[in-house]
Amino acid sequence: MTTLQSKSLAVDLKHQVAMMAAAATNTVKMLQEGTRLISTEFAKLCQQLDYGKTEHVGPLVQSLVGLVTEFLHEHCNKQEKTGKESEAKHKKLTEVCDQLRLTAAMQPPNKEQLTSEITELGNKFTRIVDNILIQHISVLVGVLEEPASDMALRSALASLTTLSLEGPHLSRLVAHCSGVRALLSICLESRSSSIRTAALRALATVCCVVEAIRQLEQAGGVEILSEMLSEETRPEPEASEAAAVLAQITAPWVEDNHTVHGLSEQLPSLVHSLTRLASTTASCETLLLSAAALANLTFMEPRTVWPLLEQGTAGKLLQAVKRRGPKVSVFLQEQAATLLANMAAVPESRPHLAEQRAVVALLCFLQIRHSPLQRAPEIAAAERVQQKSAIALSRLCSDPTVATQVVELQGVNRLVRLCKEERERNHSDGVLVACLAALRKISANCGTKVIEDLDAMELVEPRLLDSFLIYSSRQESYV
User: Which residues does the UniProt record annotate as the domain Protein inscuteable homologue C-terminal (predicted)?
Assistant: First the structure.
């Protein structure tokens, strides 16, 4: 009887924990929906004040205060553990709402006082919402630290991944709740590959903000990722997610993230592992993540070029891209072009890149054209492929041998066309500048005959600015 009771209790506990994780996710989503409505009202009110239209302020304040009051009733008063401090904050927010109503009712309204009180209301409301979010995220992190079952752990991991995808603010709160450390612990301690994979996926979504990346590096996350990637026996989905985390923490678009502690020490191992993964995988997604991680490493750590040369990464990556055939992803081509452009910035790497047929690959990349049927991200990626390819060619053509090779492969024709025909480069001035630079490097090393034959001397003879102004898509901006 005791055994049966204990089993029943265990089942109940698992169910309860799973329900808690699901409830936390749903509550956070409901909170976000409520805050979006309030944020919209805030924006409307601030806009009216900026325009000086105080006649609409009264109704907007009533609407805003009504939404805030309703939010407090729906989400704050139902909290089981509000505490005296939280109650005091809620009371203070209510007082600010009441005062704002009175100020808005004044005739005429005092704009300076209104602005001050609206700002105070916004700050206090944000802090209250963050406190509620932290409570619910802490529940999920608690499940990670002491899971009652694999099911509960998987549920919490899925919830954290979903929440982090909602935006950077939630990722910061996850980091605030020590979520990154908890996820790394799972990567180290879990015996299940699928759970480790899920933890890495959650980690990649959370690490879109510098606060999470700092927590990862403090916990030795780079070394953990390096070890996971170096083990050839690990299942590919796990290695793929580890590459995704690495690509995320080194992404150049993450603000204030110029270096990651521990990265330089792990460069040889990381480049070796990522090169192997890119060379052997049959998965397009894994190849893209590996290529992105390698390309991002060249941004953050310029010394990455030396292990890249040692491993022959450029040639192996280009072969992997070639194997994808004519339907290769433009995003994969972008990462390959980025890697080549960054490597070509180092003079010592240029002979190696030429040997690896980088010039042929770059000229193929230049042939990419955007299509009206493509989505906006694909069109933007196609522009970046053209720009990065032209930059790489410009750097490689410092070597007269490479410049001659570009001429022989009729690369000048494509560069000229990209300069002269705006549609070919989707009206991108960035592509124009890169192509002009490449043409000037080629003419300096090979002479201007090939350019004269194409009736394009205006691209190389005047100053670069003059050539740019002739074909810029935004000529009116420089008049």
Answer: 37-479
| Residue among 319, 354, 321, 315 at smallest CA distance from 335 | 321
Q: How far apart are CA 279 and CA 276, in angstroms?
A: 5
CATH of 312-479, one of 1.25.10.10, 3.10.620.30, 1.10.10.10, 1.10.630.10: 1.25.10.10
Closest CA to 321 of 281, 355, 374: 281
Superfamily (CATH) of domain 10-136:
Nucleotidyltransferases  domain 2 (1.20.120.330)
Q: What are the DSSP calls for 10-23, one per residue?
A: HHHHHHHHHHHHHH
* Domains in the chain: boundaries: 10-136, 312-479
pLDDT by residue for the chain (479 residues), tens only, comes to 444 444 454 555 556 545 655 666 677 777 877 788 888 888 888 888 887 777 778 888 888 888 888 888 777 655 545 556 677 777 888 888 888 888 888 877 778 888 888 888 888 888 888 888 888 889 889 989 988 888 888 888 988 998 888 889 999 999 999 999 999 999 999 999 999 999 999 999 999 999 999 999 999 999 999 999 999 999 999 999 999 999 999 999 998 899 999 999 999 999 999 999 999 999 999 999 999 999 999 999 999 999 999 999 999 999 999 999 888 999 999 999 999 999 999 999 999 999 999 999 999 999 998 777 789 999 999 999 999 999 999 999 999 999 999 999 999 999 999 999 999 999 899 999 999 999 999 999 999 999 999 988 999 888 888 888 888 876 544 43
Asked if 374 contacts 349 with a C-beta cutoff of 8 angstroms, the reply is no
Sole residue written with tokens 């009116």: 476
pTM (predicted TM-score): 0.85
- CA 180 from chain centre, in angstroms, equals 17
| Closest by CA position to 86, among listed 126, 119, 132, 35 | 132
Interacting residues of 434 by C-beta distance below 8 A, sequence separation 6+: 386, 387, 388, 390, 391, 394
